[in-house]
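Lab meeting, item 3. Inverse folding demo.
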């Protein structure tokens, strides 16, 4: 009777896709004690079921996760540890038949996306060995573009989780774990003997350098993993270490790789053990003098998830709705302003009309004033001439007046003399008047005496 399989017999290999995991799997699979088969993906479903995000299902993944968590927490006297122990026994029983059939002692489960459930794997299989494979993330992106995306850049968003969440996993600090071994793809290519020797020592297995020449052994062609290069080669090829730089002459690829480097940033890039300045220099030196890179789509745009796109569309629609509402209000205000402007223009037109009439009146008044000024000027000239004559005549008159005043003074003196003379002649005049009266009386008397008395009733004059 076969002994039950233990978790210390498990080896998990975790990496980003296109990181050389198939190559390392082929090498390890050549060891006398290791069995491996394609990519099982076995533990993703039961362990990811505990997460309430990142998965969609018609039955409602979030509700299912919450229900499962409630079920586990309510296990009488058990709880989470009991759940993981039961998972361990269950899935070890699924791995075991492969070991029993092959006669080997270790099962290598190479499923790159186990980075999604790494912590849960540690809880489920605490004695298992974990190999974490690193590759320059720019090389990973370049390989994804060359192998899977090619000319259809829209496919790139299918690998969003690898390029974001996968990188976040690789940036973690694993120094506290004693069941993890780090392998770098570049070191595997450049120094396969020392790299595999260190790895076998970690696995507590005999070193078998002949495993490096994996192509000399007959092997099945797997469904998953590298579909070409591994099968075209028989051992690690150093030329692939920097092969990602060969595509930098393509503007779209160079743009995407440059974007990715900037997204990772110097700290994040170097946290994974790679030189940021060296990678930046590699991109820059392959950039033509007149580059059209700026016309290529950005990596962020290509990696947008459906939820992010929908969220962006919702936000854009909301903004558009708000803008339309604001535009309607602005149009309403503009209409009101146009109406006021029309009224003001009408008033201005009428004011201009009144102003034109006033200007016309003012022009006429100015014309009349001009003519009046002209007439006044002419009169002024005439008056100045007359004034000059008057002044001349005044001078003559003044002189004449002086003469007349002298004459008047003479006349006055003559008058005074005449008055005096008259005063002297007054008695004489009275005497002469009396004499004339006497002469008249006498003459009348004589006439009376000489005529017969006709008027007997009359009295004599001398009576």
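The presenter then showed the designed sequence:
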């Amino acid at each position: 009777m076969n002994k039950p399989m233990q978790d210390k017999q498990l080896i998990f290999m975790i990496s980003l896709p296109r990181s050389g995991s198939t190559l390392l799997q082929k090498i390890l699979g050549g060891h006398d004690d290791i069995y491996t088969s394609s990519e099982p993906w076995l533990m993703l479903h039961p362990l990811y079921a505990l997460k309430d995000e990142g998965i969609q299902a018609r039955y409602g993944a979030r509700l299912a996760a919450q229900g499962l968590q409630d079920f586990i927490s309510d296990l009488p006297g058990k709880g989470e540890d009991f759940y993981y122990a039961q998972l361990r026994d269950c899935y070890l029983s699924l791995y075991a038949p492969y070991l029993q059939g092959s006669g080997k002692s270790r099962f290598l489960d190479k499923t790159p996306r186990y980075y999604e459930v790494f912590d849960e794997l540690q809880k489920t299989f605490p004695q298992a060995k974990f190999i974490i494979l690193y590759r320059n993330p720019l090389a990973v992106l370049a390989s994804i573009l060359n192998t899977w995306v090619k000319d259809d850049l829209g496919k790139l968003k299918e690998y969003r989780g690898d390029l974001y969440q996968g990188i976040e996993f690789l940036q973690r600090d694993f120094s506290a774990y004693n069941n993890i071994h780090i392998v770098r793809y570049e070191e595997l290519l450049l120094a396969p003997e020392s790299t595999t020797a260190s790895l076998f020592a970690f696995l507590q297995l005999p070193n078998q350098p002949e495993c490096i020449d994996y192509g000399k052994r007959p092997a099945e062609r797997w469904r998953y993993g590298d579909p070409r290069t591994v099968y075209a080669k028989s051992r690690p090829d150093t030329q692939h270490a920097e092969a990602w730089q060969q595509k930098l002459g393509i503007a779209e690829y160079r743009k995407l790789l440059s974007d990715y480097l900037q997204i990772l940033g110097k700290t994040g890039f170097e946290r994974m053990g790679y030189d940021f300045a060296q990678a930046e220099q590699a991109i820059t030196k392959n950039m033509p003098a007149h580059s059209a890179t700026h016309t290529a789509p950005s990596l962020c745009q290509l990696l947008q998830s459906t939820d992010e796109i929908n969220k962006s569309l919702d936000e854009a629609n909301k903004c558009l709705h708000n803008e339309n509402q604001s535009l309607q209000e602005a149009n309403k205000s503009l209409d009101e302003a146009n109406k006021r402007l029309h009224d003001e223009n009408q008033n201005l037109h009428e004011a201009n009309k009144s102003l034109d009439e006033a200007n016309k009146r003012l022009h006429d008044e100015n014309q009349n004033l001009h003519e009046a000024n002209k007439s006044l000027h002419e009169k002024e000239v005439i008056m100045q001439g007359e004034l000059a004559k008057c002044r001349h005549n005044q001078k003559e008159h003044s002189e004449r007046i002086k003469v007349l005043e002298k004459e008047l003074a003479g006349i006055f003196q003559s008058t005074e003399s005449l008055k005096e003379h008259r005063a002297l002649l007054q008695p004489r005049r009275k005497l002469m008047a009396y004499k004339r009266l006497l002469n008249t009386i006498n003459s009348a008397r004589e006439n009376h005496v000489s005529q017969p008395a006709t008027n007997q009733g009359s009295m004599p004059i001398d009576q």
